[in-house]
Structures are given as C-alpha cells and as structure tokens.
Specification:
It is a single chain. By secondary structure, this protein is mainly alpha-helical. It has 15 helices and 8 strands. Helix content is 53%, strand content 5%. The strands form 4 sheets. A two-stranded antiparallel ribbon has the order 1-4. Strands 2-3 form a two-stranded antiparallel ribbon. The longest helix has 20 residues.
C-alpha cells in the first residue's frame, strides 16, 4: 500500500501553488489572503524530510520555491506580523535553517533572526512560559511547545549561545502544570491566571485531553531530542518524553493502533479515531525508538498506527486519486468572544472532519519517512 503514497504527494504538489496550497483547508474555507502560517510550515517540513529519505530533489525544490514566495531579499515575510506575538507563526521558521544550509541564501538567515526577535519579546506567564498568542494572555497551550521550541533549539545551536535552559524550563513547567498523573495524559491548555472561562479555577487547566495537542508535544520532544547533544538537557527531555509516550500508548485502539479525538473517551458517542494526532504519536514513537531513547516495542506500535491510518483513512476517490481523511480541521480554547471553544468533550467532537489538510498530511508523511528508515535497516 505504500507505493501509492508518492503518487499522493505528487497530486498535492501538482494541485498547489504558494498562494493557494491544496492542503491549507482553513485558508481556503475562510478566504484568507496568502500569509505565513504554521499549516504550510508543517507541510514544507514534511516535504524536506521526504526529499531527504527518498533522494527526490523535486520535493526540496518545491519547498524552496514555496518559501521564496513568502520571503523577500531583505528577509521580510509576507503576511507576518510580529506584533501578534503568535507562537504558531514561529513554526514555519524551522524550515529556514534547512533551506539556508541547502542554498546559502542570506534572506533565509535574515528571516530566521526576524522570527527569533519575536521570541525575545514574547510576553510570558508568571511561570516564565511564553503566552501562546497576544490574544490569549497568561495562557500556555501544549501545541505551543512544538510551534516555538523546536525553532528555539535550532536557533540557539546554530546562531546563538547553545544555552537551552529557558527551553528546558518551559517544558518542565508544562509537565508540572499540565500533566495528569491519574490519566497519564497532558491537558490541552493552562491559564496561569485562572481567569479564562475554560480554565479550572484551581488547576488552571482545560478539562479534556485533545489528541492533537498531545501529538504536537510528543513530536516537539522527539525532534528536540534529535537535535540536542548528549547531556543534562537532553536527559531531561528524554525523561518527560518517556513518561508521555508511555501514558498515551495505553489508549491505543487495539485493532488499528490509532487514538481517539478525545483520548480517554474511546467508544463514547461521537468520538472517533483521528488521523493527525495518531500520525504525530506514531512518528514520535518510531523516531524515539530509532534514536534509542524509548523501547523498540514503540517502533512496532508506531508502525501499527501508521498502517491503521492507511487502512482506515487513505482512500481512493472515484477519479482514482488518493485522499487522506479523518483529520480534525482545527480546535482551540476561546478567546472570550468565542465561548463555543470551551474545551469540553462536546466541543472537540463538534469541529469539522476533513480530508487532505496538512495538519494530518504532514505528520502522516513524517511517519512515512520513519517507516522507510525501518525498511532500509532490514
């Protein structure tokens, strides 16, 4: 079944241009003008990874052309506003390190420094963590670790002092305030002020365990562990990574290896096995095992999950093209004027389920690269 995945990638690229990528369903539905965003960043990250493992330079060429549309010669970024202090906007910046290494284009380096300037000014909670966005004061969202800290790791190592203490402290705080010992799972959000309408007044946490938020966190840890050299910082992340992977693994669907949209409510009416978060967990498991920081059994579980996604959601349309379904389009917490996004079970299962959105496609392709690495070892 894997032989069709390359054809699927090619279909997505053929139907996409930098200003209208097929995989950015949110922008298409909302009629947004072309802008720098984390969804495209996820997809370009995956394309560079697939290019590396397959040797297919056309994927890297597409990535370069795509990013060039958004960055001018002075390093200015189309549709980016530092004043929003949105951690999501940092995520796409991680591809700039690879493109700068590949091409030597100075504009990529300039854009890297522009994005890092945002992190230097980013508002923080009293615990020292970044606000997720300016419009979410005092709030830490689990996905924000993926959006900002992988970039921060690479910047520190390649252009900074190599000091990771701030990054490690922020992740330790996330573990301290957002991990449920009883469930072995991470909550989606934490409001340090306890004032958000969705936050528990005692703990500050949201009330449900949203799969993709946990997925973002596991991918962030796996990627950062891959970049860091041996030592205390890496060991700290490994300890948290093992705990979170062990916790989420207990909720895997026995038949498919996938995970439910609201993780601990499998079988509850309206809940469903979700593609994006399942792909993220599978990728983190396979990569973590490959790096030797979690047991090899997790590589097998990760591959089972990937195969389960292929069997359940990678389908052939009437015209013979492939589509990847079962993807939650989006989920969030608030803001105050959007009380529908209240972090309840009913909210998470109410969000649209779509096909071919990069929040599902990108981690699915990253899983594919790990499966290929496993096959090459044989």
């Amino acid at each position: 079944m894997y032989e069709n995945i390359d054809k699927y990638i090619e279909r997505l690229l053929t139907a996409s241009t930098p200003d209208k990528p097929l995989w950015n369903i949110e922008s298409i539905r909302q009629g947004k003008p072309p802008h720098w965003n984390y969804i495209d960043g996820c997809m370009i990250t995956a394309l560079l990874a697939v290019s590396e493992i397959t040797g297919r330079s056309e994927y890297a060429d597409f990535a370069e052309s795509f990013i060039d549309y958004y960055i001018d010669d002075d390093g200015n970024i189309r549709g980016y506003s530092q004043e929003n202090y949105n951690l999501d906007d940092i995520n796409e910046g991680r591809v700039l390190f690879d493109l700068y290494r590949m091409t030597g284009k100075e504009k990529y380096k300039k854009a890297i420094f522009l994005l890092n300037e945002q992190l230097q000014k980013q508002p923080r909670t009293e615990t020292g963590n970044f606000w997720h966005k300016k419009i979410y004061p005092h709030q830490v969202w689990l996905d924000g670790i993926y959006m900002a800290q992988v970039f921060a790791t690479r910047f520190s190592d390649e252009f900074g002092s190599g000091d990771h203490s701030d990054m490690i402290s922020q992740i330790q705080n996330v573990r301290k305030y957002m991990f449920s010992e009883a469930k072995g799972l991470m909550y989606h959000g934490f409001d340090c002020s306890r004032k958000a309408f969705w936050a528990d007044k005692d703990t500050g946490c949201s009330q449900s365990f949203w799969l993709r938020a946990i997925g973002w966190f596991t991918v962030a840890l796996a990627d950062m562990i891959g970049y860091l050299e041996d030592g205390k910082d890496r060991d700290t992340l490994i300890g948290i990574f093992r705990e979170v992977i062990d916790g989420i693994s207990k909720y895997a669907d026995e038949k498919t290896g996938m995970y439910y949209q609201v993780v601990d409510c499998g079988g509850r009416e309206g809940n469903y096995l979700e593609t994006s978060g399942s792909s993220m967990i599978a990728y983190a498991m396979m990569k973590g095992a490959r790096l030797g920081v979690i047991d090899e059994s997790f590589a097998k579980l990760g591959k089972k999950t990937f195969d389960g996604i292929c069997g359940r959601y990678l389908s052939t349309s009437a015209d013979g093209s492939l589509d990847l379904g079962g993807i939650c389009l989006v989920a969030g917490l608030g803001p105050e004027n959007n009380r529908r996004r209240d972090g309840t079970y009913g909210y998470y299962i109410s969000e649209p389920i779509v096909e071919n959105d990069a929040k599902g496609v990108a981690p699915f392709l990253l899983c594919y690269t790990e499966v290929m690495r496993m096959m090459l070892k044989r």
